[in-house]
Amino acid sequence: MELVALLSSGKGSWAQVSGLMKQGTWDKIILIGDDFAKQFSHEKPFEFIQVNLTQRIKDLRDNFKEKLKGKFEGMEVAVSLASGEGKEHMALVSALINLPMGVRFVALTKEGILDL
Known about the structure:
Layout: E1 2-7, H1 14-23, E2 28-33, E3 47-50, H2 57-68, E4 76-80, H3 86-98, E5 102-109, E6 112-115
Parallel strand pairs: 1-2, 1-4, 2-3, 4-5
Antiparallel strand pairs: 5-6
């Protein structure tokens, strides 16, 4: 399964994404963020998609959808929303559903990766 994670401002929330990347067995990892998020690095390979997160929600959703189209092999994707704000989360989930993709929310806990 592929992992899609939003990297918004605030490096503190990036630890959650990094942990998911490290502990999970992912076929592909796609990280989405703005120019600031390009600073993120990890030992596991990932694809970075740069977007302008200050766009209006409809434009952001359309941008996510356009940039994610054709990136997935399966019909379901694991999604981390640990980083970001509500507008970004809604736009990403809406874009994925409209591709169409099934969405499985994941989070890193003390016990490991939790499917929500």
